[in-house]
Amino acid sequence: QQDLVSLDFALDFPCLPSFVEVGEKGGQLSIGQKQRLAIARALIRDPKVLVLDEATSALAPESDAAIQRSVQTSGARTVLVIAHRMQTVENADKIVVLEGGEVVEEGTHTELMGRQGPYYRLVERSQAE
């Protein structure tokens, strides 16, 4: 449960006291708040495998980074991250790059950057934006 304390910054719900009404299906929450809440619920369940499909796409970069740190330190589990934001996958043990549904490259961030292939070009393009 200590891991959830480290999510405090990323979740950042100071305006939501216990048992607050958030509307049907969380209708009164922003997309980013819904994403943070879904990630917190997943971490509380402590699954052996956690799939995050664009899970932080609507979050500010500092919230994204805080959640990444929390997921990395929250115990032994396999985490499959599907992301277009390059910073989201930089610290992964293994990165798999797909193009047209085919695996075109795999390795660590350092390995892939050294090859200067598709992953390198994606990172360069994202940094230019």
Which features would summarize this protein structure in a list?
single chain; 129 residues; alpha+beta; Rossmann fold; 2 domains; two-stranded parallel sheet; two-stranded antiparallel sheet; 6 helices; disordered N terminus; ABC-type oligopeptide transporter activity; ATP hydrolysis activity
> Major sheet: size, sense and barrel closure?
2 strands, parallel
Count of all domains: 2
What general outline do the C-alpha atoms trace?
globular
Strand composition percent: 15-25%
Estimate percent helicity.
40-55%
Number of helices: 6
The N- to C-terminal Cα distance equals 38 Å
Strand order of the largest sheet: 1-2
CATH architecture of the largest domain: 3-Layer(aba) Sandwich
Radius of gyration: 16 Å
**β-strand number:** 4
Q: Look at the structure and give the CATH class of the largest domain.
A: Alpha Beta
Q: How do the SSEs run, as a string of H and E?
A: HHHEHEEEHH
Domain ABC transporter: 22-57
InterPro entries: ABC_transporter-like_ATP-bd, P-loop_NTPase, Type_1_exporter
Pfam families: ABC_tran
GO molecular function, one term: ATP hydrolysis activity
